Amino acid sequence: MNIGIDKIGFYTPHLYVDMNQLAVARNVEPEKFTIGIGQEKMAIPPITQDSVTLAANAALDILDDRDKEQIDFVIFGTESGIDHSKSAGVYVHELLDLNPNARSIEVKQACYGATAAIQMAKGHIALNPESKVLVLGADIARYGLNTGGESTQGAGAVAMIISADPKVMILEEKSTYLTKDIMDFWRPVYSDRAFVDGKFSNEQYISFFQEVWKQYKEQTGRNLEDFEAICFHLPYTKMGLKALRTVLAETTEDVQERLTSNYKISTKYNRIVGNIYTGSLYLSFLSLLELKEDLQDGSRIGLFSYGSGAVGEFFTGILQNNYRDHLYVQQHNQLFEERKEVSVDEYEAIFGNTLPTDGSNIELDVTNDPAAICVSGITEHMRQYVNKRR
């Protein structure tokens, strides 16, 4: 049975700050942000958006009535969960009016969460071929103003339908993976901001890629020549390139050029959104699919997933015939075109405008947020959501 990605959608908030402007405000050479880490814009979530609404908005326009009836499993990968008990998947299930005879859960392992969800979904479809699984990866990367990690913040979500006989990409069976207990990035339950050992995390990212790639070659007999492109989890767009360069010597100059060129295309969406943790790898994959118009049906794509702490996995897929007919290129172009740039002062004000954590009730004005699904407030410790299309 062929199992894989049947549909893929994306959402990011309507606000962003230009990295050149942020660099000037932080007394940093702009090239450090735009070239050194490879970021041009950083998505800014207003108070009316959280991980739940980002994910729901990403899924909203890719689901039809048949999908809503066939989806019997919602798996939400995030490290920006809003509740220690109730899963974010349950909220999304209700906001999207999905079939009530379904499972809905949340999974967590840093930026690896959505990949774990996909692997779980494959097992479910293998046992239930008529089912569909909605996999979500949504996060808000938040480190703090004037911190070392500030330039790698971002916000957004990717939504995917996993099914039998998928229209976009078949996921091949073989994958290789690795777990090690390390402290390169973490966020204690008492903190709304992450802690990171940047140099150590970069080293571990590359080490994990080299290890799972070595395992993959040994177990499959494949090499770089067998891939049209390799997509990476991108905490910032230069990170994946650093890892890719460590293995390029294994192949010919022509293959090196192809993989490097396609890597650059795969980073374009991430460059103008920032880090979205669990969704970052799949945003990179989406960038490749939508922006490389001559990417051929039948191409094999490699994907490297990394979640600090740490879990890494290398897996692969084959693009299906006429896969481009099933993408949402125009919708995503419109999403980017309609975004609004904010000044650094406005960004800092938005960053500091957060939901109360002392149990206070709050009602939010959602009229300035163009998103269909928003956070509308908190009542008696319960977040309130609105779907404007109902």
From TrEMBL:
BP GO terms, sorted: acetyl-CoA metabolic process
UniProt entry tagged with the keyword Repeat: no
Pfam family, one: HMG_CoA_synt_C
Binding site for (3S)-3-hydroxy-3-methylglutaryl-CoA: 143, 242, 275
Catalytic-site annotation from UniProt: 79, 111, 233
Positions that bind substrate: 148
CDD domains cross-referenced by the UniProt entry: init_cond_enzymes
GO molecular function, one term: hydroxymethylglutaryl-CoA synthase activity
Hydroxymethylglutaryl-coenzyme A synthase C-terminal domain boundaries: 176-248, 256-350
Keywords attached to this entry: Transferase
Annotated Hydroxymethylglutaryl-coenzyme A synthase N-terminal domain residues: 2-165
Protein family membership: Belongs to the thiolase-like superfamily. HMG-CoA synthase family.
Classification via PANTHER family: 3-HYDROXY-3-METHYLGLUTARYL COENZYME A SYNTHASE, HYDROXYMETHYLGLUTARYL-COA SYNTHASE
Full protein name: Hydroxymethylglutaryl-CoA synthase
Protein species of origin: Oceanobacillus limi
Source lineage: Bacteria, Bacillati, Bacillota, Bacilli, Bacillales
